[in-house]
Give the backbone structure.
Amino acid sequence: MYEERFDKRGFDELRPMEAETGIIPNAKGSARFRIGNTEAIAAVYGPEEVKPKHFEKVDKGIIMCKYDMLPFSVPDRAKPGMDRRDMEISDVITNALNRAIILEEFPRSMITIRVYVTQADAGTRCASLTAASMACADAGLPMRDLVAAVAAGKIGDSICLDLTKEEEDFHEGGATDVPIAFLPSKNEIVLLQLDGKVTKEELKKIVEMGKVGANKIYELEKSVLKGRFLNESKS
Amino acid sequence: MTLENYEYIRDLAAKQIRLSGRSPGQRRPIEIKNKVINHSDGSARVKIGKTDVIAGVKVLPGEPFKDRPNEGGLIVNFEASELASKYASDRITYSVEVGRVTDRGIRESNIIDLSNLIIEPAKKAGFVYIDIVAVNNDGNLMDAANIAAISALLDAKFKIENMEDYKEVPLDKTKLPISHTFVKIGDTIFFDPDADEENVADCRLTIAVGEKINSIQKGGSGFFTPEEVDFCADAAFKLREEVNEMLMKQIKS
């Protein structure tokens, strides 16, 4: 049983969040997103010529996105460079952004996105995706909607939002982790993964809770970006 | 990527019709053959329609992970050569994903009792290696890899470190995590897609179901609504029995 969360949060409560844009001057757009002790920074470059050439598409642009856990982001030490996990996460993040960004507007070109996890305490792929989507908006890319991503899940018998590493490793009742990303205004799920053990009914509840969390993140994203573009019009 | 019949398949899909004549929720015939590789401890060759994969299981001694001193290990690897595709230039870009999703389904269902593989705590334990190779890709490598892996596990008998007798991999056969893959083309959802359907699809959803849902993976650039996720989960529970029965038959024979 898991009746009270380790950090005393409510079951549907997110960890404290922080976000800002324009943190990397050389990039076309950039953002930092922090939720609890998980933090990701993202930078967007392009649109530019596609390299290598054979990836080029004649009817739309492509996204090259790389997710990387920095060596000092975890308690032991992550090996520098991409491992199999990083490759898979890069793929699922790219898939989500492919839907969010209106790629038809720049055929034969490439957008490069780099996401670094500077600190990891579970939910890194969600924080990365949120940061990447804010960086894309900061770069002024045409988008269907912002992406808001959060991990929901089940610990013991309780459905929880925004799991920490400590909760993920909670073994007695077995923890289930469900990273989920929405285009909130359209009610579209653009990223969904699960590992653990849940029934159909529980899955439904988890997806619902994920949506509640995603909407809260969405509000933060919007307010930060509004602030950024208001400042720009003043100066 | 070269695509035959791109518009045609999408137009038909809008009317719930598949080029193969199957109904949206109908799978292709599955063929499972065991003991196909001499040098492995257990093996299986699985065909789903024209999709063809081989899985080999080997159990080898190794040192337990530092944070799990009382357990053996499970390592799943998937490999697909581009020769397996219908179009030679069509690289299979999701090999890593197939391997990792197959791994997650088996690991999270806890069907392998890893603590049973320990020989000497923190020093030596059995490691279960599952290597899966696609020989021919006609879509749905996810499910083919998953079924081949489970069948090979069921088939496996190993002997390591002065063991007197051959031993089976310690498996809970009552809750085998069986994978089900759906694709979405426009607003239509098809089960068990072939390669052409996969190529024109907007996105893919793979759900492994044992006693409960053990893993989910969304692939591709499109989106699912929460209702569609529900629909697929529902369908997966209903479809599970068929494959489970096939695997159970294998145990008895």
